Amino acid sequence: MESSIITQVQKEDSQLPSKTGLVNQSSPKKPRSRNIFKALFCCLRAQDAPQPPPPAQDTLLPPEDNGTIDKLDLLQNLRYQFHQVPGTSLLPEVTPQDEGKICVVIDLDETLVHSSFKPISNADFIVPVEIEGTTHQVYVLKRPHVDQFLQRMGELFECVLFTASLAKYADPVTDLLDQCGVFGTRLFRESCVFHQGCYVKDLSRLGRQLNKTLILDNSPASYIFHPENAVPVVSWFDDLEDTELLSLLPVFEELSEADDVYAKLQQLRAP
Ligand SMILES: *[C@@H]1O[C@H](CO)[C@@H](O)[C@H](O)[C@H]1NC(C)=O
Ligand SMILES: *[C@@H]1O[C@H](CO)[C@@H](O)[C@H](O)[C@H]1NC(C)=O
Asked: Which InterPro entries match (predicted)?
């Protein structure tokens, strides 16, 4: 099976301690044997990755146009316009019920659920996914306390599901997971930027104020453009005793009242 429809971190990578964790993390477990479906993992090692293309914003500028307009001003201006033109942002306009709320971008795999093609007896969902004409079953485990977590997050924030996995897998999983409709918008792989072999979630493309935006993701590569907006979370695979999502709720309760997420996150990170 060569299609990598699910974007997952490798278990070994997930054992790296997070420098900026906001929640005390339990000691890392021994790495387990590598998943046989290596093709699922689409995040290549950086040194194997093709050279990144030049930053997109540079190509918006004529090469020598720094005569009368300062280049940076022009860039800011282009960025501003880009985000103001309707239809160019990843997110639709804020709904009246989410007005004034902070926007939280939430990852799916290893943050809220863990999925695999290997049959497991205790799967919460089994989702058929068609790959190249053949239907495969994907076995999905919900992270402990995910229902309570999502329900509260929906009350506190404008919640956006943002996954680097393919919609044909992630959309039906989210239908099953998000029974209460907490996620106003779902973004999939095509909304990511492919950068140095990884799918990056570029928060500046959302169409929200960055100082009112948070990202909850187990993979630091996902928020490499905006590490200062991140609430790191330990990767989850199958530990049924995991309480990470519960421990994060008080953190998010505090963040939900922030005027500026940067200041608040800095406060929370301070020892
Ligand atoms: C234009 O940029 C070049 C280098 O990129 C610089 O040497 C030059 O001074 C700049 N011109 C103006 C008018 O800012
Ligand atoms: C947040 O950013 C916006 C610009 O995107 C700025 O106008 C606003 O003053 C900032 N708010 C705070 C509290 O820094």
From this structure: Dullard_phosphatase, FCP1_dom, HAD-like_sf, HAD_sf, RNA_Pol_CTD_Phosphatase, TIM50
C-alpha span between 267 and 271 (Å, rounded): 9
Ligand whose nearest atom lies closest to the CA of 83: 2
CATH 3.40.50.300 is held by the domain 71-116+143-269 = no
Token pair, residue 156, equals 């506190």
> Given a cut of 80, is residue 186 above it in pLDDT?
yes
**pLDDT interval class at 271 (50, 70, 90):** low
Amino acid at 174: T
- Domain boundaries defined on the chain: 71-116+143-269
67 ligand 1 Cβ < 6 A: yes
pTM (2 decimals)? 0.72
